[in-house]
Amino acid sequence: MDRPGLLPKLILALAILGGVSFLAANRFALPGAAMIAWKGSGVALLAVYAATRAKALDGWLIAAVMALGAAGDVLLETHGMIPGAVAFLAGHLVAIALYLRNRRPSLTRSQLLLALLIIPATVITAYLLPADRAGAPGIALYAAGLAAMAASAWISRFPRMSVSLGALMFVASDLLIFARLGPLEHSPLIGLAIWALYFAGQLRICLGVVGTLARRA
Question: Which one, out of 71, 102, 139, 202, has a CA that is 20 to 30 A from the CA of 85?
Answer without folding.
Answer: 102
